[in-house]
Each structure stands twice: as C-alpha cells, then as structure tokens.
Specification:
The chain is of the alpha/beta class. It is built from eight helices and eleven strands. The strands form two sheets. Strands 5-4-6-7-3-8-9-10-11 form a nine-stranded mixed sheet, with helices on both faces. Strands 1-2 form a two-stranded antiparallel sheet. Helix 7 links the parallel strand 6 and strand 7. The longest helix is centred in the first third of the chain and has 23 residues. The radius of gyration is 21 Å and the shape is globular.
C-alpha cells in the first residue's frame, strides 16, 4: 500500500472517529417517521445529515424504492432531492414513476434524477451532490454486490453528509449488507395491504421493515403503513373500511344491518 493511500486512510479513520464521538455526545437532528414504535427505538426519529441504508431482495425492488421514497419525503419535504441511479437499476426495475413518488410525499418539481453508467460514476455523483448544502437529501441506488461500496466509501459519504447537513439514503437491491458507517440499516419486504374502501383499486402501501442496525440504540421489526394524505408512516389501520353513518329516516334498519356485518 502506498504512503499516500495509507495517509488518506489514517485521516479518514481519525475524522470518522471524531464524528462518532461527537454523535454520541449530543442529540442528532432528527425527523419523526410517524410510526410510534419505530420512532421510539430511534430515540425520536431518523437522524439527519447521516447515512442510512435500505436493503432488499431483487424481487422486492419496487417495495424498497417505495420505502426509501417515503424516507426521502420525510427528510426532504420542501428541499431539492437528487436521486442517483445506476443504469442497471433502471434495466432491472424500470424507470421511476413521478406520480408514484408524489403519492409517497416527494414533489417531482424538486426531484433531480441522475443516471450513472456504473458504480464508480454513481459514487462520485452522490459524493458531489452531498457537498451541496442546498439539497435536503441524496438517494444513491446501486444494484447488486458492488465491491466499490466498501467501508472507505461509506466513511467518505458519512463525512460529506455531516459536513453539508444533507442526508444520504443508500438503496441496495440484490446485495448483502457489509460493514459500513451507516446510522441505520433497514431490510424491507412487501406486506399485505389491508382491505381498502370500495371506491379504491388498492390499499395503502404497507412495508415489513426490519431495522438491523442502529448506532444509538436497539433494533426492531415493524409493519409500517404509508399514509398518503399526511405523508408519514404509521401503524396499519385496524378498521380501514369505514361504515356509513346511520340514516336519520331509518335508524333501526341501519343498526340491524351494521350488527349483521359485525357478526359475519
């Protein structure tokens, strides 16, 4: 290993150790997710100006995209967001849907998407974007087990996020978790949506979200439903289909019908 590389690694290690020491000494700025149990484990919500990882299997790519879009919407509701995608991600899972992202709390007018030819280009672009403090968040989406996303790359992203105050969200599909400096690491899967109202074609997005790394506390696993109206996560609705109000002109018939529905 060359002297210059050794010096660079030593400098990075020293910088990240100082960041981690200060991070334990004071409360980080956080944004609540809306899910009470998850926010409690995270001591108030998702830390800003940090790196967070979301992992999913290849067939769960749409689920992971939806989950990380929800996180980005919570982190950066009114600031520009840069979404860096490796070309292979678009080949495997298709283009991002602006209408779908809008349902998950992202304003398409504030979204800048960048397509990178390979992992190296995606990493460089994400690092450059994290240096811009006008942004609210940067999403880095890389498909597969990319060797370039090692501990050194993770430390560089962590330093850049801490310096600018911009949150980094790493979307890793069809990849195995490796050592990193991420504040949190999630593994997400699709969960069953509850029955919706008769006039709706489908229910609200529901995620099986497992927190497997939390630098400042315990981990956990929850079923998290996305509330499209309030743009936050919550516990799944117990009774998602409302009953009609009792008509004033035939209250006894309506109450009897409601009793039959509850008994069935």
């Amino acid at each position: 290993m060359s002297t210059a590389r050794t010096s660079t690694l030593a400098s990075l290690r020293g910088s990240i150790e100082r960041l981690e020491a200060h991070g334990d000494a004071h409360d980080l700025n956080k944004i609540t997710l809306g899910h009470k149990a998850a926010d409690a484990v995270l001591h108030g919500g998702l830390a800003l100006a940090a790196v967070h990882e979301v992992f999913a299997e290849g067939h769960q790519s749409a689920t992971a995209t939806g989950f990380i879009a929800g996180l980005a919407g919570r982190v950066s509701p009114r600031q520009p967001l840069v979404w860096v995608r490796q070309d292979f991600s678009e080949i495997e899972s298709g283009a991002l849907s602006m209408s779908g992202l809008a349902e998950l709390g992202l304003d398409p007018r504030l979204l800048v998407t960048v397509r990178a030819t390979d992992t190296d280009a995606a990493l460089r672009t994400a690092a450059d974007a994290l240096a811009c403090d006008a942004l609210g968040a940067v999403v880095l989406e890389v498909w597969g087990q990319a060797r370039q996303l090692d501990l050194v790359a993770s430390r560089k992203l962590t330093l850049a996020a801490a310096a600018s105050g911009v949150t980094a969200l790493l979307l890793r599909v069809a990849a195995e978790p490796r050592p990193s400096t991420a504040e949190t690491r999630w593994i997400v899967r699709a969960a069953h949506s509850p029955p919706s109202a008769p006039w709706s074609a489908w229910g609200a997005p529901v995620f099986d979200a497992q927190l497997v790394r939390n630098r400042h506390g315990p981990v956990g696993r929850w079923i998290m439903e996305w509330n499209c109206d309030e743009c936050l996560f919550s516990e799944p609705s117990a009774y998602p289909q409302p009953l009609a109000a009792t008509p004033a002109h035939r209250p006894h018939q309506a109450q009897a019908f409601a009793g039959q529905r509850r008994a069935s």
